[in-house]
Design brief:
Blueprint: H1 2-5, H2 28-31, E1 37-41, E2 45-47, H3 51-55, E3 64-68, H4 70-75, H5 80-89, E4 99-107, H6 108-113, H7 116-127, H8 133-142, E5 146-148, E6 155-156, H9 157-163, H10 166-175, H11 178-189, E7 193-195, H12 211-218, H13 224-237, H14 240-252, E8 254-260, E9 263-270, E10 273-278
Parallel strand pairs: 3-5, 6-7
Antiparallel strand pairs: 1-4, 2-7, 3-4, 8-9, 9-10
Length: about 280
């Protein structure tokens, strides 16, 4: 979109593991101005329920509908620096209302009427280096105008991975309220939408709980064999003996073009000895 081209890309801060494409969400209202309501979904998720149920939720009096980020409540406890950031940098009136932006039902009509795009960009300019990028900015701007959807519609498997280890089970039950914990347990039984958020992904770690939900659908698409191949390739490339010989061969045969006045030579380095050949000659 021309609007994105006009933005100063240096102002779009991306923390480690992310790039500026996470800010594409900001541009949704500008691109789809003719729509009153938009359902945004991240790409790393599986929908098991009837998506029309989610879309039909009434958010006419809100900026958007989203699910509270329970992972934040487990990850953040007793972190004074994080508390300072949420309260003094993002200026959240209640950190318990922090939402996960991977699933958003957007009241596009309000976004356009109240120029939320400008407010988001202004807030980003003010904060400059948000820890969780666009999600932090969305929380800061939309607070007080969020309709909180049931956990079923954005079950974060980060929580599931926490739940695999006994110490983290204690953390979940300790830092979530009774209502939140019961909601988490209920949504875990039959989530309508599973979000594979975080570093671990089901295509890379198929043995993790709930990964089978990804593979069930992956088997039905034309790229299934490619997914398998890429995973095998990554695994093989990381085997120590393979890595050693790959690096050895790269050092042994280092081939590159060397441009010189009026002539271009092919340079092959074998055991550190450079041998030059005229281009296009054997």
């Amino acid at each position: 979109t021309p609007l994105f081209d006009d933005i100063d890309k240096t102002s779009l801060f991306a923390s480690s593991g992310y790039n500026i494409t996470v800010y594409y969400r900001f541009f949704i209202p500008e691109i789809f101005k003719n729509f009153d309501k938009i359902l945004y979904l991240d790409s790393d998720l599986v929908v098991n329920g009837d998506i029309s149920e989610l879309y039909s939720i009434d958010i006419s009096n809100y900026y958007l509908g989203a699910v509270r980020d329970l992972y934040m409540k487990v990850w953040r406890p007793n972190d004074k620096q994080e508390d300072y950031y949420l309260n003094n940098i993002l200026k959240l009136k209640s950190e318990n209302d922090y939402f996960q932006a991977g699933v958003m039902l957007i009241n596009n009509k309000k976004f356009v009427e109240e120029d939320i795009f400008k407010k988001l960009m202004d807030k980003l300019d003010e904060i400059k280096t948000p820890v969780l990028n666009d999600q932090d900015i969305l929380n800061a701007v939309c607070q007080g105008k969020v309709f909180y959807i049931n956990n079923d519609w954005n079950y974060d498997w980060n929580i599931e991975n926490f739940d695999r280890n006994d110490p983290f089970k204690l953390m979940i039950s300790r830092y979530l309220t009774k209502k939140e914990y019961e909601s988490y347990l209920q949504s875990k039984k039959s989530p309508k939408l599973i979000h594979f958020a975080g570093y671990d992904k089901p295509w890379a770690k198929p043995s993790l709980p709930m990964a089978e939900n990804f593979w069930k659908y992956a088997k039905k698409i034309p790229f299934y064999e490619e997914i398998i191949y890429q995973n095998l390739k990554i695994k093989i490339d990381n085997v120590p003996v393979v890595k050693f010989y790959k690096n050895f061969l790269q050092r042994l045969f280092s081939i590159k073009n060397l441009k010189m006045p009026n002539k271009t030579y092919k340079v092959i380095t074998i055991f550190g000895i450079k041998i030059k050949f005229k281009r296009n000659k054997k």
